Task: structure prediction
Amino acid sequence: MNYLYLFLTLFSSYSVGRVSHILGGHLNTPHHWIYGVIALIVGIIYRNTAWGYYLISFGIGFIISDFKDMIDLKFFGVDDVEIKKFWGID
Result:
């Protein structure tokens, strides 16, 4: 198992989560940490395969990118953020 690929998967999913927060935060849709939890659960189920590790890494990246909304248990709605920044947790 190449850990560089896992790190790149984690960073890619974090980046996708942040970009979706910046570009789609005004939409009344489910928050993307939910998709991260789903990917994490499926990855844990298939943890004996390479795809399982990638799904775990992908899910963790999505969860980190929207961690504040997960802590506040925001499932659905618009993000109320005035200053949108790429490097951050929201």
